[in-house]
Amino acid sequence: MSFYIPTNIFFGEDCLKLHSDYIKTFGNKALIVTGRHSSKKNGSLNDILSILQSINVKSIIYDKIEENPSVGTVFDAATMVKEENIDYIIAIGGGSPLDAAKAIGIIIKHPKCTYQDLFENKELTSIPIIAIPTTAGTGSEVTPYAVLTDHKICNKRTIAPKIFPKVTFLDVRYFINIPKDITISTALDTLSHLIESFLCETSNPFSECFVEQGLRLWSECKKGLVSDNITKKEREKLLMASTFGGMTITETGTSLPHGMGYPLTYYHGIAHGKATAVFLPSFLKHYKNQEKVEFILKTLNINDVDNFEKFIKELAGSVSIKKDLIEKYSQKIYENKKKLRNHPYDISKEEIIIMYEESLNI
Ligand code: NAP
Ligand code: ZN
User: Fold this and answer.
1) What pLDDT shows up at residue 229?
2) Which of 5, 67, 74, 177 maximizes ligand 1 atoms within 8 Å of its Cβ, making it the mutation to test the pocket?
3) Which residue of 119, 122, 197, 347 has the fewest CB atoms within a 10 Å radius of its CB?
4) How much is the pLDDT for 2?
5) What distance in Å separates the CA atoms of residue 38 and residue 40, rounded to the nearest whole number?
6) Cα gap 313→303, rounded to integer Å
7) What are the φ and ψ backbone dihedral angles of 186, each rounded to 5 degrees?
């Protein structure tokens, strides 16, 4: 049994400014990796730029990271700064910029890294990453994973090297104005991480501490999530639950709902958290160890799986696809050995098809 999280975590308002001396220790030139708009609006980009100026660190901004970033984008960013002697990366945004930054950091450190190396060579390392998340969902700020869209296989894929950010700064001020649909989808991603981790083969007493604590915090935000005015306190709880979700999947990985959701994102543009969470009710219903399922529901303060299903529908709505796609998507997850390995017992393609049919409008 083991548990390893090497990321330094600072939580609280203004934590970036409070630790600017520490940021200075990473070097003299930073690449800022972010999305197109949100970091300019929520104050995070301005905050880091003024801190870098105050500590005399030069920076270059790459602000073209799209949602579900592609392999092409990370090579584009690394190529842009190839002659710049970048010491470290500051990643700002949701899981997409954070994951992209991990891959960009690898290519900067290993300029000969190929498309194939990213997915096959576990030995590659990265220049240091500082993560400033602005969505509460993926937990990427503390995980070693980076999920990229690989158009060659028409799916999403985790890169082979494990890259933990060196440090993460969690400041709720950057989360206050997240629109409702993104708040819900990212919160559902956290919920999926906590539940899937607990039901993974690799779950252990260390990871389960984070699951229990994360589910409790998440449960306290249920009302806020369905209402139109989620409070700052609730956002803070979701942020902490998201980081706990990241810590637990770092140990256990994720499971079937994540693998089943990837084609919904790739082919239908459904946001990652929603694409995953729609499978949770069916996943819980069929899971063999119902004692563990009861623990999850009790901690979430939800009576039974039927009520859980109603709640997920209320938050996520429903997802419709054509029936003949189910066979193709089931085959994809059936071939995803990593996700199947995390499931504690053998599962047939027919059982996966049933979960797709129960979870989607067909
Ligand atoms: P995201 O794709 O990073 O961002 C979604 C949207 O939210 C973007 O339009 C973004 O705008 C916007 N946004 C970000 N912060 C905002 C803020 N504070 N206020 C308003 N809008 C904001 O979404 P995500 O759900 O966080 O990340 C999903 C990605 O993470 C997927 O690729 C998924 O596979 C991956 N993932 C990774 C892990 C891991 O362990 N590494 C775990 C789960 C999921 P801008 O583009 O303008 O910034
Ligand atoms: Zn996820």
Assistant:
1) 87
2) 67
3) 122
4) 84
5) 5
6) 16
7) -70, -35
Within 10 angstroms of residue 150's Cβ, the number of other Cβ atoms is 18
- Residue 167 has φ and ψ, to the nearest 5°, of -150, 150
pLDDT at site 22: 97
Here the tokens at position 223 are 């009302």
- CA distances (Å), origin 3, targets 122, 243, 292: 19, 15, 21
Q: For the whole model, what pTM was predicted?
A: 0.96
From 135, 149, 244, 264, mutation site for ligand 1 pocket: most ligand atoms within 8 A of C-beta: 135
- CA angle (90 as vertex; 111, 63 as ends), nearest 5: 80
Estimate the crossing angle of helix 232-252 against helix 180-198, to 10 degrees.
40
138 Cβ closer than 6 Å to some ligand 1 atom: yes
Task: Tell me the C-alpha distance between 169 and 342, whole Å.
Answer: 30
User: What residues of the chain score a pLDDT lower than 70?
Assistant: none
The whole-angstrom separation of Cα 257 and Cα 280 is: 6
What is the structure's pLDDT at 141?
Answer: 98
- In terms of C-beta density within 10 A (0-12 exposed, 13-18 middle, 19 or more buried), how is residue 94 classed? buried
pLDDT attached to residue 357: 97
Query: What integer pLDDT is reported at residue 336 of this predicted model?
Result: 80
Under 8 Å between Cβ of 197 and 203? yes
Neighbours of 207 (CB within 10 A): 23
pLDDT by residue (tens digit) across 267-291? 999 999 999 999 999 999 999 999 9
**Cβ contact 232:183 at 8 Å:** no
Write out the two tokens for 251.
């140990």
